[in-house]
Amino acid sequence: MPHLTPPTNDTIYLSNLTLTTTIAPGDVWSRAGKPTPVILSLRLLLPSQDLARPGHSDNVEHTISYGTLAKEVTKAIAARGSFASLREFAEHVSLASLVLAGRKDVAVETRSVLPEGLLLAEGVGVEMRLVGDPKMMSELANAVLFVDRLRVACVVGVNSHERLQKQWVVINLRLWQFPEEMWTTYPAAMKVVVDTVEQSEFLTIETLATEIARVMCVQFAVERITVAVEKPSALTFAKGSGVEVTRSRRFFVQE
After folding, report:
1. What is the 8-class DSSP label of residue 238?
2. Which of 23, 54, 97, 121 could form a disulfide linkage to 62, CB 3.0–4.6 angstroms apart?
């Protein structure tokens, strides 16, 4: 969907930089210590009109070189070698970027994706935002764990032909507040989600999305989650149609 307001920051960014490292809990089969690809996108958010000087001077020394940024991030990842979680990886990248910027008025946003992180999903990853002033840093409260395009087959739909056989649904998850151990135990949680969806026979994807949220909140103590469920084959002339819900653990406890 389009952004309806103009940005207020000047930005230097890297898009889909591919790196290789070791991140727990491991590769697509959760084998510990196996190197895995990581796709990193990074945005340095600068004050408004901060790039006016290099824009006028045409001098690369008056800006933060995106080439240097890519090299420093790659070097920092290689020097570390391995990471205890996706969160630790994202924090390391963010701090290396802020060190290079060397300023307190800069923030960094990162999106780190493991394309081989889950067997049935296109990716699992973390989105994080950190600011350059240490006094303003929270304890990574702005770190979000997400799962992209988890594909599962199930019976779902109100039409008679939809009750005859399973069809694919595509699930996207964003975990906003959750126990710390979820950073390394997400494969087990996703297995429960897959099993739940495969065994379900709901009429609506609204109910299916709610049931997925219930599983994550009740069984895995997730405090807040957004669940999107899409049916790619529901409409002939649309690539997909679906619903998205955001639920809290409190919502299900009060039922």
Report:
1. S
2. 54
Identify the CATH class of 1-142: alpha beta
- pLDDT at residue 104, as a whole number: 86
Per-residue pLDDT tens over the stretch 49-84 = 999 999 999 998 899 999 999 999 999 999 999 999
Percent helix, percent strand, percent coil in the chain, to nearest 5? 35, 30, 35
For the cut 60, the answer to whether the pLDDT of residue 172 exceeds it is: yes
27, 74, 15, 142: CA torsion to nearest 10: 70
Per-residue pLDDT of 229-240, as tens digits, reads 999 987 777 788
Q: Which amino acid is residue 48, in one-letter code?
A: S
CATH fit for domain 144-255, picks 1.20.140.10, 3.30.420.40, 3.30.1130.10, 3.90.180.10? 3.30.1130.10
Task: Name the residue type at position 28.
Answer: V
The partner residues of 170 in beta bridges, in order of sequence, read 151, 230
Question: Residues for the chain: how many in total?
Answer: 255
Spatial contact of 64 and 101, defined as CB atoms under 8 Å apart: yes
Four-residue CA torsion sign, 126, 114, 245, 253: negative
